[in-house]
Write a structure and sequence with these properties.
about 550 residues; alpha/beta; Rossmann fold; 20 helices; about 35% helix
């Protein structure tokens, strides 16, 4: 292990590190900090929980100690994919820079624009932001990026998963070409590799550990259950929490809707649990994370928004309620425990429907987790799941076919119109009229006249129209054998050639054509008006002629 005093940091920063309780640097810190202090670009490849935040925060503070911030022109920019990671970096910066006069601002969604604009107008040294909110401020004209000296891109592979790569490319182009770039990612997919080749200048590649590998301090267990019922999975989760003597733990689900269901189920059975996912407002998310960090919350049920980069110390257990769709997410999920040399335990619940995703996880980590047998009453879970499915339509939830009432409204039936039905029309269609109203309406209607039938056609009926009478019947047509066949028609050489065909009379052209002097002169306008209506010449319809038409009776 390398001591921080050997990395070339200033005494003031070393004191702040010692006050935080750290003495020895991690491998990624030991390799990245000297290169960053020298001003070179860094390409750091390390899994989460290896100390990447301090690897770029400490040298950045050391380099910015001299200089002064300008209004709306930050000197350093740190890009994070999520609000939680940005808030975590801000907390680390405040902790390590407490002995300096450096200022910082946090630009994330869910917070008022006005408060953030006041900080930018005052001038900050370090700007910690998510891509969306940063570009919003830039579009409003409240931010200039021409003074950025150091650009940090953290969790780049997570940026790729969330669709932020076009925003990152734009931010790179808005900053000066001559700047220091510190680029960190847990994995290096082709899109991230292309980005580093385009914007980094001869970076020092630092690979602290193999991409997507698990920590040796983490004990991994796999629980296979014979049912795919959510009720069975929740029953297994409660049993695992009771057996493992959990101090605190994170439960990961694949879907946001499942996060709320699992958290509510745990609270119903007496467990201290709360949910966190992307649909919650920022105040709720911040408060929930703070309670979990302080030990006031035992179980945190989360989606993958909390899976990467969150520095939550001393997490004893991680539960994979769902097998992740992407194998890399499994590594990031269980990386929430076993941090800073401590040990941890992880459990993954797998159903028969998870066989494909489970094979991907086992292939990535290189070995199957230890299987844990659980003897539970599966019939109870099966009956409970059937009761929930049957009662779902009565509660207005999802039906047994997996489609809820709201989903049926959004998706029209086949052959129907895609236009949504108005709410008023649905209300009138669902409401049946009262019987008294129906009787009153029927009595108010006038009696209908009897319908007259058409007289039957007799022999005295008029004959059909002459045009129809003259039309020959189908049987009167000549049979197909008597018609001239196609092969009997002349073709090829038998057809008359162009020179044998009769020519039209040659039209005079050139000198033979009559000149303009020989053409009849046009009539005077007054003469035309006297003869008839303008535009018709001599052929004037009778109804447009002045005076009665010839032969028309005159009124007396």
């Amino acid at each position: 292990m390398t001591d921080f005093s050997e990395l070339g940091l200033s005494p003031q920063i070393l004191q702040a590190v010692a006050d935080s309780g750290y003495t020895a640097a991690t491998p990624i810190q030991a390799q990245a900090i000297p290169v960053a202090l020298a001003g070179g670009d860094v390409l750091g490849i390390a899994q989460t929980g290896t100390g990447k935040t301090a690897a770029f925060t400490l040298p950045m503070i050391d380099k910015l100690s001299s200089g002064r911030a300008k209004s709306r022109m930050p000197r350093a920019l740190v890009m994070e994919p999520t609000r939680e990671l940005a808030d975590q970096v801000a907390a680390a910066f405040e902790r390590y820079a407490k002995g300096t006069k450096l200022t910082w601002a946090l630009l994330i969604g869910g917070v008022s624009f006005g408060d953030q604009e006041k900080l930018l107008d005052r001038g900050v040294d370090v700007l910690i932001a998510t891509p969306g909110r940063l570009l919003d401020h830039f579009g409003r004209g409240k931010l200039l990026l021409t003074g950025v000296q150091t650009l940090v891109v953290d969790e780049a592979d997570r940026m790729l998963d969330m669709g932020f790569i076009p925003d990152i490319e734009r931010i790179f182009k808005l900053t000066p070409p001559k700047k220091q770039t510190l680029f960190f990612s847990a994995t290096m997919p082709p899109e991230i590799t292309r980005l580093t080749k385009q914007f980094l200048h001869e970076p020092t590649r630092i690979e602290a550990s193999k991409p997507a590998t698990t920590n040796e301090n983490i004990a991994q267990f796999l629980v296979r259950i014979p049912l795919s019922e959510p009720a069975a999975k929740r029953m297994v989760l409660r049993e695992l929490v009771n057996r493992a003597d959990v101090k605190n733990g994170i439960v990961f689900c694949n879907r946001k809707s499942e996060v709320d269901v699992v958290a509510k189920s745990l609270r119903t059975h007496g467990f201290d649990a709360a949910a966190i996912h992307g649909d919650l407002d920022q105040t709720t998310r911040t408060r929930t994370l703070d309670n979990f960090r302080k030990g006031e919350l035992r179980l945190l049920v989360a989606s993958d928004v909390a899976a990467r980069g969150l520095d939550i110390p001393d997490v004893s257990h991680v539960f994979n309620y769902d097998v992740p769709h992407h194998a890399d997410d499994y590594v990031h999920r269980i990386g929430r425990t076993g941090r800073a040399g401590k040990s941890g335990q992880t459990f993954m619940i797998a159903t028969p429907a998870d066989s494909r995703n489970l094979d991907k996880v086992i292939k990535l980590i290189g070995a199957a987790p230890e299987e844990l047998k659980m003897e539970l009453d599966w019939d109870v879970a099966r009956e409970r799941g059937e009761r929930q499915r049957k009662s779902a339509p009565e509660r207005g939830g999802r039906s047994s076919s997996g489609r809820g009432r709201e989903r049926d409204r959004e998706r029209p039936a086949r052959g129907g119109s895609d236009r949504p039905r108005p709410v008023e029309a649905e209300a009138h269609a669902d409401a049946a009229p009262a019987p008294e109203a129906v009787e009153a309406a029927e009595s108010a209607r006038p009696p209908r006249e009897p319908r007259q039938r058409r007289p039957a056609r007799t022999d005295a009926s008029p004959a059909p129209a002459p045009a129809q009478a003259e039309r020959p019947a189908r049987d009167a047509r000549p049979p197909r054998e008597d018609r001239p066949r196609r092969e009997d028609r002349p073709r090829g050489e038998d057809r008359p050639r162009g020179e044998d065909r009769p020519r039209e009379e040659a039209r005079p052209r050139g000198e033979d054509r009559p000149r303009a002097d020989d053409r009849p002169a046009r009539e005077d306008r007054s003469e035309r008006e006297e003869r008839g209506v303008k535009g018709f010449g001599s052929d004037i319809p009778a109804f447009l002629q002045r005076g009665p038409a010839p032969g028309a009776p005159t009124k007396k």
